[in-house]
Amino acid sequence: MNTPTANDFPALTPLVWADQDASQRAQLLRRPSAAIGSEIRASAERLIAQVRSDGDAALRALTRRFDGVELGELRVPQSQFDAAEAELDPVLKQALIEARERLLAWHEAGRAAEFEIDTAPGVRCGRVLRAIGRVGLYVPAGSAPLPSTALMLGVPAQLAGCRKVVICTPPRPDGRADPAVLFAARLCGIDSVYTLGGAQAIAAMAYGTPSVPKCDKLFGPGNAYVDAAKQCVAQDPDGAAIDLPAGPSEVLVIADAGANPEFVAADLLSQAEHGPDSQVILLSPCAQLLARVADALNRQGPALPRAAIAARALASARLIRTTDLAEAFALSNDYAPEHLILALRNPGEWLAQVQAAGSVFLGDYAPEALGDYCSGTNHVLPTGGAARAWSGVSVASFQTSISIQSVSPEGLSAIGPCAATIARAESLTAHERAVTLRLDAIGQGRT
After folding, report:
1. Is residue 296 in some structural domain?
2. Is-contact 192 139, C-beta < 8 A?
3. How confident is the model over 285-301, as a mean pLDDT?
4. CATH number of the domain that 268 lies in?
5. Which of 22, 63, 112, 389 is the most exposed place for a label (fewest CB within 10 A)?
């Protein structure tokens, strides 16, 4: 494909938010994949049904259809792990090792803790944590392999202590898994890797096949089809739980007049190059900045190796002038972006205004790309507005939290009447009797 020129890039004209009516505003913030959401889901459901019906045969047929690869064994042999480690650029290996160390530090610091407290004399309540037994990790490699995602998912799974960890990642044209993905998997102690991609990989991990083990919970980002497949299996009692809705990537930048337009343009393009269904939005009260960013996009974009992909994504990009920064934050909270960059002179002072975002980047020298790779935070984040109610992946995502309570006769005497009163109010007589029978026994000295 010919490299696009500046003339091939969409001419992004800044829009004034105050000039848009309600329907126009809704359209401006609509995600690209939303327009064909029902079609994508129907396609994902068909692929899932095919895998459930035909197992490994369906996985090979779908890989042949979508990836152009004829698979032998679905699981990557250990010899490929060894070869990957030997052939990988030492500089890249070291970068992945360093990124893993920062991820370990951040996730370790944020781990949930078990606890016990006395809620009343003789009543001790607490919480214990248990690792999810079998987890499936999806590591994209559609237009580019993402070894960073193997780390983002593998590190918290390792810290949680999951008994069985499986990775599915699309094959390269030669049928092998990407060497950097294999190296990252090995860094996290994972040796069960399958060269499978797309909705069919999600189906394989959710329901199991003769080759791929069934998993209890699935993790990882992907394109709109992968995201749809995850949500389908999560709604099926026979399927698997999922981490969060994590579809096409997105970034929203809030910038003031002092922001560097070259930096802002680079941040927008870094998300646009993920895929044609990615979305990038810039909000600023400064008309001059918006114009300068539009110019920088047209200068920087055509020079990118993935310029054609970025150009398609920019068709859904938005440069919006707000009345002030307060309006920009209100708009951002309504959109609930996966990534939020605050290109402001005093970004920390505005952090309290952020109510919905997957991850926030403060200031001119915190590009979103650092979060993608090596700052230490996790890049598996909610997309599509899900950040209003979902959080990014953490160690807790790979654990269940189980409440516990122990009660002595004295404790039951103290709080049993409270329970019985509420049970009567709810007309649940058996609940009430489960308490009062014990209270009677205690009163009669039959403890």
Report:
1. yes
2. no
3. 97
4. 3.40.50.1980
5. 22
Q: What whole-number percentage of the chain has pLDDT above 70? A: 97
Q: Which of 8, 15, 11, 13 is nearest to 283 (CA)?
A: 15
Q: What is the spatial distance between Cα 90 and Cα 281, in angstroms, rounded to a whole number? A: 37
Given a cut of 90, whether residue 265 has pLDDT beyond it is yes
pLDDT in tens, 219-247: 999 988 999 999 999 999 999 999 999 98
Whether 341 has a pLDDT exceeding 80, the answer reads yes
Sheet bearing 217-219, strands edge to edge: 192-194, 164-168, 134-138, 217-219, 241-242
Residues labelled as active-site residues: 338-339
pLDDT mean over 92-109: 98
Residue 394, helix vs strand vs coil:
coil
Contacts of residues 40-47 at CB distance under 8 Å and 24 or more positions apart, as own/partner, are 40/224, 40/225, 40/228, 41/228, 41/231, 41/232, 43/199, 43/225, 43/228, 44/199, 44/225, 44/228, 44/229, 44/232, 45/232, 47/198, 47/199, 47/200, 47/203, 47/225, 47/229
> Per residue in 278-304, is it b (16+ CB within 10 Å) or e — as a string?
bbbbbbbbbeebbbbbbebbbebbbeb
DSSP state at residue 75: B
The pLDDT, as a whole number, for residue 4 is 60
- For residues 108 and 196, membership in a common domain is answered with yes
* 394 inside domain: no
Q: Comparing C-alpha atoms, which of 3, 5, 12, 2 is closest to residue 316?
A: 12
